[in-house]
Amino acid sequence: MTDSAPVPVSQPKKPWFTFTDDGCRTEVRLGGLLVAAGVFLWLWLGPPLAGSLCGIGMLLLLVGVPIQAIQGRAGRPGYPWKLGLGMTILGLAMWPDLIYRLHPDGPAAVQELVWFLAGSGLWILAWWPLSRPRRTIP
Asked: Is residue 12 part of a domain?
């Protein structure tokens, strides 16, 4: 008889840091990617195309985040709170750099990029408390 030692089962390596976890809905991931692409490629793509990318991404987030939160309430993992937090922090950090005036005496305005990025992040974070799984009463 041979005694064979149990073979250790290797766990799949989990990335050190990701903005979305397994279980996050595709439209939320794609929406966040499109908003970020529109914001950070604004000058390269031009305002019309970048604005369209941000608009499509925001629509995907508008629909996907509430669905993700409702499903998270039922136990689905992967709510993208890190994505929301990152988008909000980056959007608010960019705010002072994106203030401009069309004329020296004109009113100060903020470029739309801030609203796209920070608004999308705030939308994700607003649904986060509602995505917590329900407690089952024994």
From this structure: no
Question: In the predicted model, is pLDDT for residue 136 greater than 80?
Answer: no
User: Residue 2 falls within a domain, yes or no?
Assistant: no
Inside any domain, residue 61 = yes
Going by C-alpha positions, the residue among 120, 121, 100 that lies closest to residue 110 is 100
**pTM reported for the whole predicted model:** 0.78
Q: Which of 113, 123, 115, 128 is nearest to 60 (CA)?
A: 123
Neighbouring residues of 32: CB distance < 8 A, sequence distance ≥ 6: 19, 20, 57, 61, 80, 83, 87, 120, 124
Domain count of the fold of the chain: 1
Of 120, 2, 13, residue with least CA distance to 65 = 120
Q: Model confidence over 92-116: pLDDT tens digits?
A: 998 888 888 888 999 998 888 888 9
> In DSSP terms, which residues pair with 109 in a beta bridge?
100
Range of the domain at 44: 26-131
Q: What angle (nearest 5°) sits at the alpha carbon of residue 70, between those of residues 65 and 76?
A: 95
- Please check whether residue 4 lies inside any domain of the structure: no
